[in-house]
Prior knowledge:
Blueprint: E1 8-13, H1 19-29, E2 33-37, H2 38-48, H3 51-61, H4 68-81, E3 85-87, H5 101-104, H6 110-117, E4 126-129, E5 136-140, H7 146-153, E6 160-165, H8 168-176, E7 178-181, E8 186-189, H9 216-240, E9 243-247, H10 251-266
Parallel strand pairs: 1-5, 1-6, 2-5, 6-9
Antiparallel strand pairs: 3-4, 7-8
Helix pairs in contact: 1-10, 2-3
Catalytic activity: a ribonucleoside 5'-triphosphate + AMP = a ribonucleoside 5'-diphosphate + ADP
Region (LID): 177-214
Pfam families: ADK (PF00406), ADK_lid (PF05191)
Amino acid sequence: MHxxxxxxxxxxxxxxxxxxxQSERLLHRFPQLSSISSGDLLRHNVKQRTPLGIKVESTMxxxxxxxxxxxLRLINNELNQRGWLYSSHPAGNVMTLxxxxxxTQSFSNDADMAAFISSPAHARGxxxxxxxxxxxxxxxxxxxxxxxxxxxxxxxxINMVVSLKTPLEVIMERISGRWVHEASGRVYxxxxxxxxxxxxxxxxxxxxxxxxxxxxxxxxxRWKKFEETSEPLLEHYARKGVxxxxxxxxxxxxxxxxxxxxxxxxxx
Length: 268
């Protein structure tokens, strides 16, 4: 299925609702769609020892949170590298992960870097996003708050936000049957994806375990926290006119609804 215009999409859903499953199915259905993860970008820059990566690493080692401006900078750079974010610089798209100022130059101190990454997008050479279908992506891990969404709006106007909803009790039942092979990350469920031998990994035969955060008490706390933080974020995107909500008892029930809506908005 081919897209006719750029899709800039965010999926929002409580832990266990199947956000990863829906992302994989969208990426498979629409080859022009890419996944951009803020976590992956952070890890890439730390591994490559870029100036921004070094800043991220030092912040995390000190127990601090990575500033929103820095994450936005990394996302903008990634889109620019791919040619998906037009530059306001007269020379065109000159700022990329490999060549942007924040990654090739050194800053004399933290204040200089902070001033650079928090400066307005246009001052750093960023213009408008490409509407070419090949510039389509699912953004994962960011934004998580309304403040982050407002900053993202400055350079990357998201044009579809999907709110995935499944009743709490259904997710609780799903989680209660979940078992994991720690070494590989393979996940089983006694209800709909059981291992061939109870309690054993299909590939290695090694024992399966329950994750600590799969307990009912822990999950209910995570659900409550998600509801508190996601509500204002969803309201922000509702005001923008880009929010679409879909509900189902399972991922297989949600997927066809999501695909139809996605095709209606972006596909030929």
